[in-house]
């Protein structure tokens, strides 16, 4: 309540607030984005061989990386919400399952988890299929992209659960009491009062997770997903020019993460509110 | 006449602390009851038991004919009981208008237009119709508390509970909130108020209660209460009235 008023960038109705004009100012970090994109474009045009050829070769990898990251992130948001609510549940079974999930997943390296999903999980499914005598399940073959998205979701969902839990707990208790005193059910209070505030509160760490997920998505290259990293390795295997290939791959990741970081801070500003 | 709030010998423990030790109290329709007492005397806890924000360990409470002990639909009871908190507790992410309409819409199932009409009417009543589009942070404490009162009133409660509604306010703001409460009392609202605003108590209360160590020490009309011969009452009144 004390601190000074900060701009709440929700449009014109609050434009009279001191400092509100800074909302429209362009984020200086866009300069870095321009610089990196500029460097990449220069390399590709000035030294088209091999940079342009590398870019053409890995561009489908960029699409795969983007697809895996975005879809895993969407599922992560849902998994984290469920996990976070589970961690806060007063039902000991739900709380126990959610806690077990978080503790187990947090303790295993992501790479090991991905390898497990790709190599071990199908065998488990096939075994169950044989046991149940269902041919469709017994002949289960893993799909690399599916495995990648599943593995990333399960892992990042655990981290996200903890973020959501902290976010929900950071909403002052009196907010829920006020909602309940007005006759709202526990669900209504969560849905209309607690979660909308918690979600805004957790945007910065959630944004960080999104960027971390994009970078960690390169680990899926070991489970036969043709993402950016794997395509880079394939190109290098043929032409053996590590400096150019890995510089290009690094620049492409950098461009993606920088854009994502700008997007995240834009969303944060949009959703900001003062308590 | 059947009391609208019937509290019978309730007990409440917080761990080892015995916060309420057999409190009984009846409040009739249209009555204004002011509860005072030192901090930790259980007055807030008693108030919070009435809409079961706090569960009690023993005894019984009947509100508007509904026994709270194991009421299945506590939300139905809470709809009839407005509550105003010391810390205002406005929903920080919503505008004043949204604060006033949210529960009307999701609990009372009123339409957007109807709930906004009621909200505006109440904001006019508490004197800040021009703040409908503001966010809580942009309001003074007194304005926030008046919004909180309007938010509770929007549910058309039969009973209003006030938990130290002016304790977090500057003297000037205290008056604007008390004015609203006084008007409400004059309209015949049933009110249970935990407050040390003795001016308000004198003007509005039908009954005053002193609590200490989880028990009701004295219960009397304001005239009798302020001239009480009870030692504990005299002692406590001297502290709240700053009579040195």
Which descriptors apply to this entry?
A: 275 residues; mainly alpha; disordered N terminus; B: 244 residues; alpha/beta
Q: Kindly state the mean pLDDT of chain A as a whole number? A: 88
Task: Report the helical percentage of chain B.
Answer: 25-40%
Please state the CA-atom Rg of chain B, rounded to the nearest Å. Answer: 18 Å
- Series of H and E elements of chain B: EEEHEEHEHHHEHEHEEHH
Shape of chain B: globular
Total beta strand runs of chain A: 0
Portion in beta strands of chain A: under 5%
Number of separate helices of chain B: 9
> What would CATH call the class of chain A?
Mainly Alpha
Give me the secondary-structure category of chain A. mainly alpha
- Architecture (CATH level 2) name of chain A: Orthogonal Bundle
The number of domains of chain A is 1
Distance from N terminus to C terminus of chain B (CA atoms, Å) equals: 42 Å
Q: Remind me, CATH topology of chain A?
A: MetI-like fold
The fourth-level CATH homologous superfamily of chain A is: MetI-like
Low-confidence stretches of chain A: 1-21
Q: What is this structure's SSE topology?
A:
The complex is a heterodimer of chains A (275) and B (244).
Chain A: H1 30-46, H2 48-88, H3 92-106, H4 110-132, H5 135-138, H6 144-170, H7 173-181, H8 186-216, H9 228-239, H10 242-271
Helix pairs in contact in A: 1-2, 1-10, 2-3, 2-6, 2-9, 2-10, 3-6, 4-6, 6-8, 7-8, 8-10, 9-10
Chain B: E1 5-14, E2 17-27, E3 32-36, H1 43-50, E4 58-63, E5 66-67, H2 74-79, E6 81-84, H3 96-106, H4 112-125, H5 141-153, E7 159-163, H6 171-186, E8 190-194, H7 198-204, E9 207-212, E10 215-220, H8 222-226, H9 231-240
Parallel strand pairs in B: 3-8, 3-9, 6-7, 7-8
Antiparallel strand pairs in B: 1-2, 1-4, 4-5, 9-10
Describe this structure in words.
The complex is a heterodimer of chains A (275) and B (244). By secondary structure, chain A is mainly α. Helices cover 76% and strands 0% of the residues of chain A. In chain A, α2 crosses α10. The termini of chain A are close together. In chain A, 29% of the residues are buried. By secondary structure, chain B is of the alpha/beta class. Chain B contains nine helices and ten strands. Chain B has helices spanning 43-50, 74-79, 96-106, 112-125, 141-153, 171-186, 198-204, 222-226, 231-240; strands spanning 5-14, 17-27, 32-36, 58-63, 66-67, 81-84, 159-163, 190-194, 207-212, 215-220. Chain B has a six-stranded mixed β-sheet, with helices on both faces. In chain B, strands 2-1-4-5 form a four-stranded antiparallel β-sheet, covered by helices on one side. In chain B, β9 (207-212) and β10 (215-220) form a beta hairpin. The N and C termini of chain B lie far apart (42 Å).
């Amino acid at each position: 309540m004390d601190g000074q008023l900060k701009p709440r960038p929700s449009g014109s109705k609050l434009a009279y607030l001191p400092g509100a004009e800074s909302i429209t100012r362009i984020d200086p970090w866009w300069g870095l984005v321009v610089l990196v994109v500029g460097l990449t474009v220069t390399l590709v045009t000035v030294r088209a061989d091999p940079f342009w050829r590398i870019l053409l070769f890995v561009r489908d990898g960029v699409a795969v990386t983007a697809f895996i990251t975005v879809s895993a992130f969407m599922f992560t948001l849902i998994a984290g919400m469920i996990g976070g609510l589970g961690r806060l549940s007063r039902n000991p079974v739900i709380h126990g399952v959610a806690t077990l999930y978080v503790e187990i997943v947090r303790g295993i390296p992501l790479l090991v988890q991905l390898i497990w999903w790709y190599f071990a999980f199908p065998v488990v499914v096939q075994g169950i299929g044989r046991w149940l005598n269902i041919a469709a399940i017994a002949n289960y073959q893993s799909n690399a992209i599916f495995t990648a998205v599943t593995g990333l979701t399960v892992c990042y969902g655990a981290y996200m659960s903890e973020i959501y839990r902290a976010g929900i707990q950071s909403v002052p208790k009196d907010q829920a009491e006020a909602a309940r005193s007005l006759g709202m059910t526990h669900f209504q209070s969560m849905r209309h009062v607690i979660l909308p505030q918690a979600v805004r509160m957790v945007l910065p760490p959630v944004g960080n997770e999104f960027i971390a997920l994009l970078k960690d998505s390169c680990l899926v290259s070991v489970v036969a997903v043709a993402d950016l990293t794997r395509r880079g390795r394939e190109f290098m295997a043929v032409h053996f020019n590590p400096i150019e290939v890995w510089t290009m791959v690094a620049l492409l990741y950098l461009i993606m993460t920088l854009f994502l970081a700008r997007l995240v801070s834009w969303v944060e500003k949009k959703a900001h509110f003062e308590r | 006449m059947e009391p609208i709030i019937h509290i019978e010998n309730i007990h409440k423990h917080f761990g080892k602390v015995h916060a309420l030790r057999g409190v009984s109290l009846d409040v009739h329709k249209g009555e204004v009851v002011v509860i005072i007492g030192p901090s930790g005397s259980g007055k807030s806890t008693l108030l919070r038991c009435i809409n079961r924000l706090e569960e009690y360990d023993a005894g019984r409470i009947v509100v508007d004919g509904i026994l709270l002990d194991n009421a299945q639909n506590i939300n139905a009871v809470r709809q009839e009981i407005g509550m105003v908190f010391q810390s205002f507790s406005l929903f920080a992410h919503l505008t004043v208008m949204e604060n006033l309409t949210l529960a009307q819409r999701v609990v009372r199932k009123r339409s957007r237009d109807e709930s906004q009409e009621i909200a505006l009417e109440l904001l006019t009543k508490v004197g800040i119709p021009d703040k409908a589009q503001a966010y809580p942070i942009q309001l003074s404490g007194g304005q926030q508390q008046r919004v909180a009162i309007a938010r509770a009133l929007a549910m058309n409660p039969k009973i209003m509970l006030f938990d130290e509604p002016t304790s977090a306010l500057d003297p000037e703001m205290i008056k604007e909130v008390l004015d609203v409460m006084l008007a409400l009392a004059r309209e015949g609202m049933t009110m249970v108020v935990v407050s040390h605003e003795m001016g308000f108590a004198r003007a509005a209360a039908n009954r005053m209660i002193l609590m200490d160590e989880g028990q009701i020490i004295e219960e009397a009309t304001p005239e009798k209460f302020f001239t009480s011969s009870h030692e504990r009452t005299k002692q406590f009144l001297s502290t709240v009235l700053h009579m040195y």
